[in-house]
Amino acid sequence: MTFETSGLHHVTAIGGDPQGNAEFYLRTLGLRLVKTTVNFDDPGTYHLYYGDGSGRPGTLLTFFPWRDAPSGRRGIGQATTTAFSVPEASIGWWERHLRERGVQTSRVVNRDAEDVLTLRDPDGLALALVAHPQGDPRDPWDNGHVPAEHAIRGLHSVTLSVSREDATAGMLTEGLGLSFSERDGNRFRFQAGAGGPGALVDVLVTPDAPHGLVAAGTVHHVAWRTPDEDTQAAWREELVDRGVQVTSVLDRQYFRSIYFREPAGTLLEVATDEPGFAIDEPLLELGRALKLPPWLEPNREQIAAALPKLDLPSENNPESRS
């Protein structure tokens, strides 16, 4: 394997009502909406990007929210849990905060020396908050609802559900350059580089589970980082030479992407770190206005009219909290 990812870039999921989605991720989880755009392949729905203050790779959970989308089914061939990293001493605070917000959670469990609190978003998407004992140096977004000392630092890991681990493990190690880290029963952990929050994936072997159905409340795909377009192009060529069916390079405006599936069926992406979310609006105004790529801009009036109304909480903008 010539190329190695440095970690997670983003996770994209299917949501339901976009207003409820924004309220939960901005006010309950305390993330920032860093881009309000549309699904470039289906501009009849939003594409909402949540992350830290600037939307750095490794902090992003994004959504295609269809208001009338049917519920999906978690299962084999999917990323079945998306985990965020929080400070080690903050799990108790999050338990109280979520309870006050009416969100049901699991009891805190300790797994691989990390405290884990699981929950679901309004559409049933499985989430976890994980406190890593060595901490997480990434700066948080402070939106007023979640104090900075407790705030989410970014993605921690994803869990892929499979019926057997060998073929998926081969794709992770030989296709993405990850290395096997440890095993805990039927859970196999792989890491990018030295590992740690934002560079982890767990492969959960559940042979009796049903196959997943991608719809509301499930993950659509998992994206991994590559530094630039030249590396991505060479990486794509290597994957194709290995017999992997890979898309052409697609322009996602804020990064470039290629897509392919791991053997169990989960859709994976390799996305560039650049150019980032500040290319079409100032950093202080991220997420405030509907942004469209140049090829959709001529149809702005029709696209905007077809989208449901979305009222963003004022605290998404830094100047409103000063």
TrEMBL record:
Residue intervals of the VOC domain: 7-132, 154-273
Top-rank lineage group of the source organism: Bacteria
InterPro entries to which the protein is assigned, alphabetical: Extradiol_RC_dioxygenase (IPR052537), Glyas_Bleomycin-R_OHBP_Dase (IPR029068), Glyas_Fos-R_dOase_dom (IPR004360), VOC_core (IPR037523)
PANTHER family named among the record's database cross-references: RING-CLEAVING DIOXYGENASE MHQE-RELATED
Name the record gives this protein: Glyoxalase family protein
Species annotation: Amycolatopsis cihanbeyliensis
